[in-house]
């Protein structure tokens, strides 16, 4: 495999920049660009050692550097690696990279070092994915989940499900291949139980992915309601700044305003919207349409009503739009309670499982709102070590596997041959191995075979 090189630090000025070289010729290439005052030669250095010297191009010194040597397989990529730390300038680091490329390396593509780490078995696919999550984490909780992913939590969770599938396949294969041996017949009931358990394990895994997304991206929450009920006031209260313009003129908010807001232990991606109403104002109408779209996509709807006024036709229209939404996805805010209790509070209490009287203007009721949101979206009992699916790709693989197991169960119920069930279970294992990045069907067969031999 070719030797690759890139500047691994950001394209910006800083204290230090690192040029990373990885591949079979990494150390001989380093020999050509590194001069040590003590005569140290990278290709003769031991792994995990470093040397001080200068980086040179065409015998001209470019900068004072420290060169670190990693020897295969004890490096990030699993290959020989040299890392050159120079002063953190954009120009100087580019020049050193150029010298390295002149000396025989090819430019690394995006993510190529990590890809090699994966190909060389240093990381599973989910661990490789976690590298990016660690880099992009911006809260303690997000980092904890990324670290668990990196440390193999998802891999282990999926691997244990694969092991269970492989066990079933082993039993099926043993029975099919050696019917004359005294191997117990595969009992349909026992088989059904194993498959149902596997399906449950997959469903539990799939259900974690929502939470994974919420930790990473935050809860998307849309504030909705007719004009003038205090949506922008609530938005400003939650975001802690005067982000959205508040007036008593209906139709003030015409756009959708977005802010990332931390409320207790939950991060909200909060959207303030134009009030839902038909309007002559072209811009406002676009805002109203966007608000409707956001209403569809949101994890949480904060439906705001004016508690001092009776429900009007526009409120009723909103109630109709919210029909059929899961209870946990909607919180009714009965605002302006500082003006006294109107007739709407009681009827809203009848309609919504969660109904919070508030005064967005004074901040009253904020604590109850925080509690209600945390209760819905902060799962203290979900810990990173459980293995929470971290992205769409992982989710799709898990769903495909679940589908195959479901089909296997249906095939069993229809009295199909065990062969058909074997094929479907093979498929399920294959989807999961796609998830972890292990090789597909061949590996399943190998696993089956190994297990089968043990104990026989
Ligand atoms: P929006 O159209 O739903 O975004 O409503 P705004 O946030 O722009 O508020 C409309 C009017 O209601 C403004 O005059 C606010 O000051 C007022 N308002 C908002 N919340 C409260 C509240 O809790 N109590 C009272 N008395 N007035 C409020
Ligand atoms: Mg507004």
Quick synopsis:
Helix content is 47%, strand content 17%. It has 456 residues and is an alpha/beta fold. The protein is flat.
Q: Please, could you describe this protein's structure?
A:
The structure is a single chain. This protein is of the alpha/beta class. The protein has 3 domains: 4-108, Probable tRNA modification gtpase trme, domain 1 (Gyrase A, domain 2); 153-208 and 387-449, Up-down Bundle (Four Helix Bundle (Hemerythrin (Met), subunit A)); 220-377, Rossmann fold. The chain contains 15 helices and 13 strands. It has helices spanning 26-33, 90-102, 112-119, 125-136, 140-150, 153-177, 188-217, 231-239, 282-297, 313-322, 344-351, 366-377, 392-413, 418-436, 441-453, and strands at residues 4-7, 16-22, 34-35, 49-57, 60-70, 81-87, 106-107, 219-224, 257-263, 266-272, 300-306, 330-335, 355-357. The strands form 2 sheets. It has a 7-stranded mixed β-sheet with strand order 3-4-5-6-2-1-7. Strands 9-10-8-11-12-13 form a 6-stranded mixed β-sheet, sandwiched between helices. A hairpin with an 8-residue loop joins strand 1 and strand 2. Helix 6 runs antiparallel to helix 7 and helix 6 crosses helix 15 (441-453). It is flat and about 85 Å long. The two termini are 41 Å apart. Mean pLDDT is 86; it is low at 440-456. Bound molecules: guanosine-5'-diphosphate and magnesium ion. Residues 231-232, 244, 252-253 line the site of magnesium ion.
């Amino acid at each position: 495999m070719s030797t690759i090189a890139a500047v691994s630090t950001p394209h910006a000025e800083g204290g230090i920049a690192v040029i990373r070289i990885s591949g079979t010729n990494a150390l001989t290439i380093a020999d050509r660009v590194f001069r040590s005052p003590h005569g140290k030669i990278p290709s003769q250095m031991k792994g995990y050692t470093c040397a001080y010297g200068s980086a040179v191009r065409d015998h001209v010194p470019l900068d004072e550097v420290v060169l670190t040597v990693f020897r295969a397989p004890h490096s990030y990529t699993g290959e020989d690696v040299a890392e050159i730390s120079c002063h953190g300038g954009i120009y100087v680091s580019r020049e050193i990279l150029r010298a390295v490329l002149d000396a025989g390396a090819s430019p690394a593509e995006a993510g190529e070092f990590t890809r090699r780490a994966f190909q060389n078995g240093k990381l599973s696919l989910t661990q490789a994915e976690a590298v990016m999550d660690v880099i992009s984490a911006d809260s303690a909780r997000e980092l904890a989940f990324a670290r668990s992913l990196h440390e193999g939590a998802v891999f282990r969770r999926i691997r244990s499900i694969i092991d269970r599938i492989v066990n079933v396949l082993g039993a099926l294969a043993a029975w099919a291949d050696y019917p004359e041996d005294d191997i117990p017949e595969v009992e349909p009931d026992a088989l059904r139980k194993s498959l149902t358990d596997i399906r449950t394990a997959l469903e539990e895994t799939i259900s974690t992915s929502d939470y994974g997304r919420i930790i990473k991206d935050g809860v998307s929450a849309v504030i909705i309601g007719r004009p003038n009920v205090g949506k922008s006031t609530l938005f400003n209260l939650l975001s802690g700044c005067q982000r959205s313009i508040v007036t008593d003129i209906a139709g003030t908010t015409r756009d959708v305003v977005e802010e990332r807001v931390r409320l207790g232990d939950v991060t909200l991606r909060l959207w303030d919207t134009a009030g839902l109403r038909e309007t002559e104002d072209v811009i406002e109408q676009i805002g109203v349409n966007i608000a409707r779209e956001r209403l569809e996509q949101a994890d949480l709807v904060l439906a705001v009503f004016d508690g001092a006024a009776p429900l009007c036709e526009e409120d009723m229209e909103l109630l109709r739009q919210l029909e059929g939404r899961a209870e946990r996805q909607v919180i009714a805010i009965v605002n302006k309670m500082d003006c006294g209790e109107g007739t709407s509070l009681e009827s809203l209490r009848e309609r919504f499982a969660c109904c919070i009287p508030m005064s967005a203007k004074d901040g009253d009721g904020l604590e109850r709102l925080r509690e209600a949101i945390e209760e819905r979206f902060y799962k203290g009992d979900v810990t990173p070590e459980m293995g929470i699916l971290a992205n769409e790709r992982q989710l799709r693989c898990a769903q495909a596997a679940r589908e195959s197991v479901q089909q296997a169960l249906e095939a069993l119920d229809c009295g199909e041959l065990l062969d058909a069930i074997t094929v479907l279970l093979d498929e399920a294992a294959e989807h999961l191995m796609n998830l972890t990045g292990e090789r597909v069907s061949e590996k399943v067969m190998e696993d089956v075979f190994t297990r089968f031999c043990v104990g026989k």
